[in-house]
């Protein structure tokens, strides 16, 4: 009678050939680290933004872990504290920016006032200089007028003396 059962060696050979064929066709078994790395690198190469491996247990899935963290009161408190600290930091930065803007505005206003004072002082100095120049001209004109008047008096006196001299001679 011919045995229909294959010998253990034949079964092992067939099993090995089948595994080799599957490995050649599909790559190594999905549970190996190299397979996951290969899938991640090929997913990245294809432009896929992320690669989510098939997790062995749903409890290990990141979404479940996140939900579990969110449900934990200590984690909630930690998240709220982190959110509050972030909000306080943002408010602090906004307050600093506001103060910086105000300081900058005050500095600009101070510079503007200083420039205005400087212009006013220049204007006053120019007016004083014009007044001095005008006063010098008036003084010069007055001196010239006084000289002319004095010369006229001297001329008048000379004329009168000549007139008297002629009258005496006559």
UniProtKB/TrEMBL annotation:
Residues 1-51 have a biased composition (Polar residues). It comes from the Eukaryota. Residues 76-99 have a biased composition (Low complexity). Residues 60-72, 100-170 have a biased composition (Basic and acidic residues). Residues 1-170 are annotated as: Disordered. This is Uncharacterized protein. It comes from Ciona intestinalis. The lineage of its organism: Eukaryota, Metazoa, Chordata, Tunicata, Ascidiacea.
């Amino acid at each position: 009678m011919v045995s229909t059962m294959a010998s253990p060696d034949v079964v092992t050979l067939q099993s090995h050939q089948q595994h080799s064929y599957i490995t050649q066709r599909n790559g190594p078994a999905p549970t190996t680290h190299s397979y996951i790395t290969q899938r991640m690198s090929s997913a990245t190469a294809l432009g896929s933004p992320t690669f989510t491996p098939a997790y062995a247990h749903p409890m290990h899935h990141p979404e479940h872990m996140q939900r579990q963290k969110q449900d934990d009161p200590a984690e909630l408190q930690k998240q709220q504290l982190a959110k509050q600290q972030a909000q306080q930091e943002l408010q602090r930065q906004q307050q600093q920016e506001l103060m910086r803007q105000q300081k900058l505005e005050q500095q600009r206003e101070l510079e503007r006032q200083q420039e205005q004072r400087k212009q006013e002082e220049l204007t006053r100095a120019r007016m004083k200089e014009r007044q001095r120049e005008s006063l010098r001209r008036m003084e010069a004109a007055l001196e010239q007028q006084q000289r002319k008047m004095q010369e006229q008096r001297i001329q008048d006196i000379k004329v009168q003396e000549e007139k008297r001299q002629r009258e005496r001679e006559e």
